[in-house]
Batch of 3 targets.
Target 1
Amino acid sequence: MKLSAFIYSPYGYTGEQTPRAALIGFNGNRYDPPAGTYALGQGYRYYSPAPMRFYSPDHLSPFGKGGYNAYAYCACDPLNFRDDTGQHRTFARLQHFWESQSRQPIQQVAPRTIKPAVQAIANRPLKASAPALALKTKKKTVSFNLQPQTHRYPAEPIADIKFREKEIQSLSIYIEAFRKRIKRKKRMLNELNDPSTLHFALSQGFDENGYNIEKLKLAVWLEDAQYRIRRLNNALKTYMHY
């Protein structure tokens, strides 16, 4: 008594009550009921769906002596690979593309060879002609006027003076506003340095560490402000003595 299980494989599926000889898998391979295998590779080797292995590994196997796992499902990918000769796999989906690309055979063009006369001329050192030497020896000389002349128009000093006056006025206003801001920051720092201010801040729930950090930030700002005010005064003097 021969038992036949319901088997799925890349070559279709078969059942106990189905005539296997009449079934063809999706890739067109016919099942051989007496042998219980598929004749693949133009009969070069056989595949058994029960153990999902190939029988009789061929002697041209690229995997050494071969074995049951030598050609398992065409590299485990029967959808993208196929083996029409039974000796090596090919790309199934790309086969049509390569065939369409290779319909017109590529013509092999022989490499060009230089004739002896042309080769002799090509290897002959070039001699410079007389006009070429004359152009090579002749150099262009460009002279520059080292004493530039400056032209002033009558309206130019007036416009320049008005521009300086406007800049001096704007800069003076900015310096005065910045000095007032420095004075306010100094008063704030003096208040923070007062012990009574610290006691009041602690009574209100402020952290002493945060209180000291704010004092440090304010002191650093005042130090930078003194540097900025000196730079602004120097710029103002430059405009006034121009």
Note: Helices lie at 73-76, 95-101, 116-123, 130-137, 155-193, 195-203, 208-240.
Target 2
Amino acid sequence: LRQYSCKAEDDMKSGNCTVTLKHGYDSIDEYTVSGSCHMEKSDGSRSVACKTYCGGAMTAYLIAKRPANNAQCIKNFNYRIEQRAKNWFLVRSGACLKSSIQIDVGCLFDYSVDKVSSFSNMVEDEMHSS
């Protein structure tokens, strides 16, 4: 489970998100990372892509947004999951960049999470591979 806490943008800085990696909603084993997002420009529009730390996963998927009634962030319209090479990214754009929101993302690996020695090692490995 990856829980993104994103703050509303009020200027041209890249999106202010932190991501907390957990084994599940009730997990006490968690690791928080900041600075894993970067701004992108394409055809005059801006988006922010954040690493999911799901590198090597078979898939990554959106679970939920909080608050659920946030009308500025619309799934698959201005926030979505994208695969790029072997990595997965949470991408936000448009009105969703101007909204404070929590987005939960899941990763599906073809191996047991017990094989991951620690989240800090996972983050370190992915930082060096990109």
Note: The longest strand covers residues 59-66.
Target 3
Amino acid sequence: MIEKTNKNKILTILFLMFISFTILLNINITNNKQKDSTVILDRISKIKELATTKYYYSNIIAFKENKKIQDIKIPFTQKSFLIKYEGTIKAGVDIENIEILENKKEKIKIKLSKPKILNHNIDEKNIYIYDEKNSLFNKLSIKDVFNEISKEKENIEKKLIEDGFLEEASKNTKLLLENILRDLGYKNIEIVFE
């Protein structure tokens, strides 16, 4: 009798272990997503840039494309998308090539390279695709989206430069460096951009 109850207990424990193992295995199998990501180059380097101006923007791209034969649109080949995204552009100077032309008791003259756009980033968390259409004979691809965003980035940079974005970066750089140099005791400060 005692032997039978021990046998039942062991069988019950084994059965519960089997059920638990099966449940855990099924949970792991259903949630098992495969993601391969490899770091190709891992390097830390010094930043020798001084960013003094930052521009935030939001943009919408409306893209439509048809296949054509000698400027005649082929029916059922239109693909399109409407995408909204946000980005930031930073401008400033490369301070690696800073040159002190004159350094006297209360006078200093510094030469810097002209301001440039240091980086232009798209916020991946704020990309929204509102309308996306494929056709049977002309599929929409991720490459289409990236190409259009890349073209728009160039257009935005050109427009900013035309509107005086780099001149604003020059003013901000000059102001920042003048304040730092005044705090160091210089009274006659000249900053030249070349």
Note: Residues 43 and 54 are 26 Å apart (CA to CA).
